[in-house]
Every structure is written in C-alpha cells, then in structure tokens.
C-alpha cells in the first residue's frame, strides 16, 4: 500500500477518507489496493479507513482479530452488532465525506463491491458516501513500466499466434477444419509461448460471428469452408506475476469476400479509427466520449442498431479491468482516461440474420506523453 500517495489523492479529491469494508472476501479491490492477503478465510466483517491526514485505523471482530494486522494503524475490536456500529462511528469521527467501493445506480459494476446496507449504515452516521471509482482507477487500473512491457511482450506473442491461426485454417481448409479445432490450436500455441488466459478464444464462423460472446463447443461447433467469414477474438498474458492482458479481434474470409462483408468491415474499421483518432488528439477524455465517437460513425452509416455493446473496456491483470470503459451504451462511463490507462477499442456490426458479424479490436495505452495502439492494426480482411 502506498499510503502517502493515497492520502495525497484523497486531499486532491477533497475527501476526508477512503473506507474499505469486506466480508467473506467479496471485495478483491480492497485487498489489491491495500496490498495484503488475509492469512485465512474472512468470515467476519472488517473495516479500515485511510484518512486524508493522519494514521489509518480499523475495526475487526474479536474472533478474527488479526485479519488486517499487516496494515498500519490501530484496530478496534467488536463482538456485538452494537459494538460494531459504535466502533465504526469512532474510526469515522470528524469525517463528512468518504469514498467506498460503491457506484450510484451501479453505473460502474466493477467498483460496486460494497452492499447497499453497509452504505446505509455509514450514511446513518451522517457521512456522505461517494464512489471510489476514480480512486480505483488511479491505484488499480494504471500500469507501471514493468506491467506495460509485459503487455507489449504478450502482444507480440498473441499477434504471432493470430497470424498462425489464419495460416492453420488455410492449410486445413481443403481437408477439413472447424471452430473447435482452431480454438484448440490457439490454446496450445498460447501454452507453447508461455501465455495464459482465463477463457476463450472466440472462433466464430458466419452467423456465429454475429454473436459477440460466442464460444465454440462440441454442441455448437461449425465447419470452416470456402466462402465462410471467420472471426478470431483472443486474449492472453504472460505467465508471470502482475502481467497484463493483450486482447484483439481480427476478421478473415475464405476466398473473395462479398460486398456486404466488405462494407461491414469498412464501417467497423472507420468507427475504430474514429475512436483511435479521438484518443490520440485529446488529453481530457472520459470513457463515454470514446464510445460516442465510434458509435456515432456506425450510426451515420445506418448500422446503429447493430452495434449492441460498448466500444471498449479497461484491460489489466484481468482481461476486463477496473478502469474507465469506453461506454455510453451499457453504462454512462464518465470516468477520466488517466495516464497509465490501457483499454480496448472494439466496435462491431452484428447481422446474424444475414449470417455475418464483424468486429475489429485493438488495444490503446495512454501515457503522459500521448496515446498509442500497442499492437498490429487490421486494415483489410485477411484472405484465407
């Protein structure tokens, strides 16, 4: 835990403190920001407040008194609910405005870890509870140089596997190849390259490419044949501590693509590039504005109702990170895009009724010096 930096951020945001709370390890953000792991399962509630000035302090149950011993500051103990409420009031005494892992109307579900009842309990003490979403971005979703380099290295390896996957399909096209076999090939190549992933990849053919979260299985497996559209969505990271994911989507066609496929790809490519250009041109952006740029382009081409998900998501040690998402559809994400932020831009057009779906996904990193795409950018459909 970087206590001086956290307290500096609290003063900058005009907050009296940041209140952490957990029960049964429901809030992984608390443990990551505070920089500790409990030595055993947490079965009782603990609280820990970092004030803008002064020493942190906490509350623990008497039968789990050591749960936050590794953190600095005094810890008060409780047994009864009455004691718990009294001790909570004691550690928050004098505070008027504190941040918690709470999001109004659950606008940012990645941050909404604290239950409504606990927020009510704190508010009953006369304290204004505000969202820690911006703080979480700063202390959880901005990369240091080592993490950024792990992302770059993963990107080189994933891009190599992606190119190889299209070659694999091409080589097997005449003898027989399907979605599952391509997905298995990609996973095996990831292992050989020292990459790990939590799921996927997505290998979607024709109408399956029109399902944004399709994943091939034995039940849904489709062959890949001449005249087919192929979507490859893959994400992985280095198999090492604190490594950061790389997440991309590329499109290919087995043969000469028809006009409707080429047109959809050109529209998606234009939307992607509009979002990239916006991120590169401004330093004061918020997530929803990037979504507006991509979505506005697609709407101008008549496909607005076929772009059914956000433009992009934060990327971190988990493929869907806790920073600002490029989103003004599923949520209105007005969080700032901070230096150190890594995120995807992945507009899509989904026409499963016409047997196609097209998405193009790249990753962008924002630093104090500017913004960059961190890997290869698809300009044309891959001809398989």
Q: Main β-sheet: number of strands, strand sense, barrel status?
A: 6 strands, mixed
Helical percent range?
25-40%
* Highest CATH level, the class of the largest domain: Alpha Beta
Strand content: 15-25%
* CATH T-level topology of the largest domain: Creatine Amidinohydrolase
**Rounded average pLDDT:** 95
Poorly predicted tracts of residues: none
SSE topology string: HEHEEEHEHEHHHEEEEHHEEEEEE
Overall, the morphology is: elongated
Which structural class best describes the helix and strand composition?
alpha/beta
Report the CATH superfamily of the largest domain: Creatinase/methionine aminopeptidase superfamily
Count of DSSP-assigned helices: 9
CA radius of gyration is 24 Å
Please give the domain count.
2
Please tell me the CATH architecture of the largest domain by its name: Alpha-Beta Complex
Strand order of the largest sheet: 4-3-2-1-5-6
Count the strands?
A: 16
């Amino acid at each position: 835990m970087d206590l001086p930096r956290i307290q500096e951020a609290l003063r900058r945001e005009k907050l009296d403190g940041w209140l952490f709370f957990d029960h049964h390890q429901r809030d992984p953000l608390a443990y990551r920001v505070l920089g500790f792991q409990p030595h055993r399962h947490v079965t009782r509630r603990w609280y820990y407040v970092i004030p803008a000035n002064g020493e942190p302090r906490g509350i623990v149950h008497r039968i789990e008194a050591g749960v936050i011993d590794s953190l600095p500051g005094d810890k008060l103990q409780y047994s009864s609910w009455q004691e718990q409420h009294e001790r909570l009031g004691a550690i928050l005494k004098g505070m008027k405005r504190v941040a918690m892992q709470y999001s109004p109307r659950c606008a940012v579900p990645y941050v909404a870890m604290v239950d409504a009842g606990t927020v009510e309990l704190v508010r009953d003490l006369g304290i204004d509870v505000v969202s820690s979403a911006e703080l979480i971005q700063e202390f959880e979703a901005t990369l240091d140089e080592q993490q950024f380099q792990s992302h770059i290295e993963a990107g080189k390896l994933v891009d190599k596997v992606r190119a190889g996957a299209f070659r694999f399909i091409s080589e097997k096209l005449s003898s027989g190849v399907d979605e599952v076999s391509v997905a298995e090939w990609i996973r095996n190549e990831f292992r050989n390259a020292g990459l790990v992933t939590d799921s996927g990849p997505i290998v979607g053919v024709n109408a399956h490419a029109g399902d944004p979260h399709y994943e091939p299985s034995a039940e849904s497996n489709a062959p890949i044949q001449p005249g087919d559209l192929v979507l490859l969505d893959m994400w992985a990271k280095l198999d090492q501590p604190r490594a950061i994911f790389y997440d991309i989507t590329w499109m290919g066609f087995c043969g000469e693509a028809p006009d409707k496929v080429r047109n959809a790809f050109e529209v998606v490519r234009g939307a992607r590039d509009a979002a990239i250009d916006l991120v590169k041109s401004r330093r004061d952006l918020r997530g929803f504005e990037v979504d507006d740029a991509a979505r506005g382009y697609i709407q101008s081409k008549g496909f607005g109702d076929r772009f059914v998900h956000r433009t992009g998501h934060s990327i971190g040690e988990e493929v869907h990170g806790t920073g600002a998402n490029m989103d003004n559809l599923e949520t209105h994400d007005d969080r700032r895009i901070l230096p150190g932020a890594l995120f995807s831009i992945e507009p899509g057009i989904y026409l499963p009724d016409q047997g196609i779906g097209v998405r193009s996904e790249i990753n962008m990193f924002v630093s104090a010096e500017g913004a960059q795409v961190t890997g290869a950018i698809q300009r044309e459909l891959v001809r398989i």
